[in-house]
């Protein structure tokens, strides 16, 4: 593991002593994390992702990475690194005012993103991944157009597809969802990607969801949504308190991978 070059600041006092710190710390144990936005694009329309998750669970989505290297094309993307999930939440939860929607984060979004992507690529060059080249070749031939095949090494080409559902809407914001790890049957992943991601091919039911993290200023709104939907046994926590728990663990623990 390369030492992450990420500037870290301590949480403000009011977050350090927030009443949800102990609960969040406990709920993070035995948890896989999924990062998304409250809203997303689907066929040109806005979709309330969080409402759909609360009603129907986490549904496998068309996944550009899976199309390249996995036996299935739709997966639920999860991670053991909560910071990694927060980054995806920020990517998809963009609004018209930019991504800086949180009162506190454990490290800068861009620095963490750069670190995780470089680690994935660096570790992915391992000889352990040679058997995956055969899978990659077969998937490229069977699943991709000629134009897509020509651009499969083009990072910018793929980014457009990785984040095709993100949307800049005034009411959008990041969401981190905690999933009971005993409810997940992980797919085999290439070395490097497996250090930071867990992929599941099946739907993850609402009953397997342990909690939802949203920005502090959105907690009341989401609790009202949960009450309206009649959902029981669902904790709603501030993302900022999840960041405090990461700060307690320290930089290297949050960065090390599986």
Task: Summarize the helix and strand pattern as letters.
Answer: HHEEEHEHEHHHHHEEEHEHH
* Distance separating the two termini: 11 Å
Give the number of helices.
12
Order of strands in the sheet with most strands: 1-6-8-9
Roughly what is the average pLDDT, rounded to an integer? 87
Question: What is Rg?
Answer: 18 Å
Task: Pick out the low-confidence regions.
Answer: none
Shape: globular
Summing up helix and strand content along with how strands pair, one would put the structural category as alpha+beta
Biggest sheet: strands, sense, closure? Answer: 4 strands, mixed
Percent of sequence in beta strands? 15-25%
Number of domains: 1
How many E-type strands? Answer: 9
The portion of residues assigned to helices is 40-55%
Description:
The chain has 258 residues and is α+β, with helices and mostly antiparallel strands. The protein has one domain (13-255). Helix content is 41%, strand content 16%. The protein is built from twelve helices and nine strands. Strands 1-6-8-9 form a four-stranded mixed β-sheet. The chain is globular. The relative contact order is 0.24.
Describe the protein's topology.
Elements: H1 13-16, H2 21-27, E1 31-37, E2 39-42, E3 45-48, H3 49-56, E4 61-62, H4 64-69, E5 74-78, H5 82-92, H6 109-124, H7 130-143, H8 146-150, H9 155-162, E6 174-180, E7 198-200, E8 209-214, H10 219-229, E9 235-238, H11 239-249, H12 251-255
Parallel strand pairs: 8-9
Antiparallel strand pairs: 1-6, 2-3, 4-5, 5-7, 6-8
Helix pairs in contact: 5-6
